[in-house]
Design goal:
alpha/beta, 6-stranded mixed β-sheet, two-stranded antiparallel sheet, about 35% helix, about 10% strand, disordered C terminus
Length: about 325
């Protein structure tokens, strides 16, 4: 039934009030639904695939995983106020203790060969998954900064059921990629615990002010709905970095042409120009200076203030509990 009367005018009085109130209620309900859908309330702790994905997989699907829950011996899940931490510890009880910290985009599985090599040489090894990676939970209500990761290392060390990983010069610390920056922060804060510090292709933690204005606005405010931001980020991460530049696009195009020619039974065309091989890598094997200067290696560590400042603080500190001469090397075997 139309609210307009026979003279073509809206009714006045109580009927107008009912229409306005109904419109306001419907609008508020629609906005509430959109708000709950686009900006859902996030739990304080996002559970790892160990609890959300793996229980729903069949035995055959579990066997196809590159990173299995039993990938390393001595697995344990450490419950903390920040979520569960996946920790592995194995090797001779009387061996030198070595703690590994992995990088930003992978789990601790990237350090498999190094860890096994150290164990074969008689070391006691500990690995763990950083928060939000591998089989560790993700505290979504806290910034993922040096304080959080330093606390996580302490929690992992304290969880050992058989050995004490604390005390003067208790263990050797090895950090890879982002783990290198985290290891520097930890060694700067607790120098008496670390006997050796080894950095493998180190990279530092990026400070918020180092990001562009667009990135800071997108991730630090609620202007962009969370679901839209998550969708855009997932699409961005699914596109490998090596395929984004001109060279990567050319390689992808050549690979697609080769696949098409192979499917048609023809020989793909070859290019007369070939990409020259990269120059051989010459790793820096010298000691880290102790006075306000960084060696000319690891451009990432030099350019990132978050990694540079703790390194300089560590170099300027008198090595009381640390043996003189930190070595930043490409292979950790030198300390075994």
């Amino acid at each position: 039934m139309s609210p307009i009367n026979g003279s073509g005018q809206w009714p006045s009085g109580a009927n107008t009030g009912i229409i306005v109130a109904s419109t306001a209620i419907a609008t508020a309900a629609l906005l509430t639904v959109l708000r709950n859908y686009l900006w859902p309330t996030q739990p304080k702790v996002l559970r790892s695939p160990l609890r959300t994905v793996l229980p729903n997989l069949s035995h055959d699907e579990l066997q196809k995983l590159d990173y299995k829950p039993d990938n390393f011996p001595g697995a344990r899940d450490v419950e903390t106020p920040y979520g569960s931490i996946r920790v592995y510890e194995w090797g001779p009880l009387d061996g030198d203790k070595v703690l590994f910290v992995h990088g930003i985009s992978t789990s601790c599985i990237t350090l498999t060969k190094l860890a096994n090599e150290f164990v074969e040489r008689g070391c006691r090894v500990m690995l763990f998954d950083l928060f939000g990676r591998g089989f560790s939970d993700n505290p979504s209500d806290l910034p993922h900064d040096a304080r959080l990761y330093t606390t996580q290392i302490l929690l992992a060390l304290a969880s050992s059921p058989e050995l004490s990983w604390t005390g003067p010069q208790a263990f050797k610390l090895v950090g890879y990629s982002l783990g290198g920056g985290i290891a520097v922060h930890f060694a700067t804060t607790f120098p008496h615990l670390v006997s050796h510090l080894t950095l493998l292709a180190p990279a530092g933690l990026i400070r918020p002010e180092s990001f562009g204005a667009t990135t800071r606005t997108a991730f630090s405010t609620d202007l962009i709905p969370w679901r839209i931001l998550r969708w855009a980020t997932s699409r961005r991460l699914q596109n490998p970095i090596r395929q984004q530049g001109k060279r990567g696009k050319a390689k992808a195009k050549a690979a697609a042409a080769a696949a098409s020619a192979s499917a048609n039974g023809t020989t793909p065309p070859t290019s007369d120009t070939t990409t020259p091989p990269p120059p051989p890598h010459r790793p820096y094997l010298g000691p880290l200076p102790h006075r306000n200067r960084l060696p000319r290696h690891g451009r990432t560590a030099q350019r990132s203030r978050a990694a540079r400042d703790p390194l300089r603080a560590l170099a300027a500190r008198q090595p009381r509990g640390l043996r003189a001469g930190f070595h930043v090397v490409r292979a950790a075997r030198a300390h075994v």
